[in-house]
């Protein structure tokens, strides 16, 4: 049987489309692999996972030569190994040792919300994700296994459907946010120096491979990407962290470049500083669902600066902070 025929047969088996004879053949084959994996101490789980991709590539390259020659010229263990690797490449779960099962591949969906927009999506478990501008979510089309894991790049507010048997995990770079059922905001833009998690309801676990904190309502965690340091603080005004959901902006001790970064993302424009000395300016301000021109005017008035608009670009001019 060629690798392609094997893949097709395994796919039919997963979809429950096999004939009785084909089903019997596949189940017998899986059982034989299970038995063999227990007898061969070299096929330990850690070693298989560590070198799996390299072995798959090698096996596929060698496959034409292997199937072109009589099977008797190859040791039985090598033939079984090649078939096992081909099956793994097809995304089939295989027993690799007593009590251990190599996971099947998962079908993912990836959703990107571009600058200048907001989006709400519903995951397969009915959890809601409110995506801020320039945000990317990667999640399984259907949750399976013991956890519900999604990947976030950007900012989103989560309303997680409660399921005590399946924790919900959000991975943002090195940081994992783990919950059972709650609502909270995660900010993890790749071009910003830290990851922030602010909790509205429930209990949330945040951490990397070394540090962990547990958050309750009106608390936040901040993770410095450069220093790899995780801190926990109380939040007096949680609405500041979710203001974006209503189109509002809250700037607390933000530098002008930080503010420009947020405005570029929210309004899908390009704002630049003509004088780099303006980068040192800091601002505290609130804008309630205001149009971009009015926001820029107020910022310039506060700084004693001026601006000009060229196409989709805004250039702020000024000397230093006043």
From TrEMBL:
Domain FecR protein: 115-205
Residues annotated as transmembrane: 76-96
Annotated Protein FecR C-terminal domain residues: 249-316
Record keywords, A-Z: Membrane, Transmembrane, Transmembrane helix
GO molecular function: sigma factor antagonist activity
Entry-linked InterPro entries: FecR, FecR_C, Ferrdict_sens_TM
Name of the protein: FecR domain-containing protein
UniProt source species: Xanthocytophaga agilis
């Amino acid at each position: 049987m060629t690798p392609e025929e094997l893949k097709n047969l395994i796919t039919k088996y997963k979809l429950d489309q096999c004939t009785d004879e084909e089903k019997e053949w596949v189940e017998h084959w899986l059982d034989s692999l299970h038995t063999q994996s227990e007898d061969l101490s070299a096929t330990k789980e850690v070693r298989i996972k560590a070198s799996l991709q390299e072995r798959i590539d090698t096996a596929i390259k060698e496959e034409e030569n292997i199937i072109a020659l009589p099977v008797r010229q190859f040791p039985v263990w090598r033939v079984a190994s090649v078939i096992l690797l081909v099956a793994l490449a097809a995304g089939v779960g295989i027993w690799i040792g007593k009590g251990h099962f190599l996971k099947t591949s998962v079908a993912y969906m990836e959703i990107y919300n571009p600058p200048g927009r907001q989006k709400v999506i519903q995951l397969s478990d009915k959890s809601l994700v409110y995506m801020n501008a320039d945000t990317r979510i990667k999640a399984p089309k259907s949750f399976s296994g013991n956890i519900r894991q999604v990947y976030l790049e950007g900012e989103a507010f989560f309303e997680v459907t409660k399921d005590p048997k399946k924790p919900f995990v959000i991975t943002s770079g090195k940081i994992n946010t783990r919950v059972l059922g709650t609502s909270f905001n995660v900010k993890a833009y790749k071009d910003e120096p830290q990851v922030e998690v602010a909790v509205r309801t429930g209990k949330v676990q945040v951490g990397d491979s070394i540090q962990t904190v547990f958050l309750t309502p009106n608390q936040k965690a901040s993770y410095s990407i450069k220093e790899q340091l995780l801190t926990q603080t109380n939040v007096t005004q949680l609405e500041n962290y979710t203001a974006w959901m209503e189109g509002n902006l809250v700037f607390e001790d933000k530098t002008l470049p930080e503010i420009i970064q947020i405005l570029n993302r929210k309004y899908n424009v390009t704002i630049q500083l003509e004088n780099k000395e303006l980068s040192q300016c800091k601002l505290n301000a609130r804008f309630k669902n205001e149009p971009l021109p009015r926001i820029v005017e107020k910022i310039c008035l506060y700084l004693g600066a001026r601006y000009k608009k060229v196409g989709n670009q805004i250039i702020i001019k000024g000397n230093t902070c006043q």
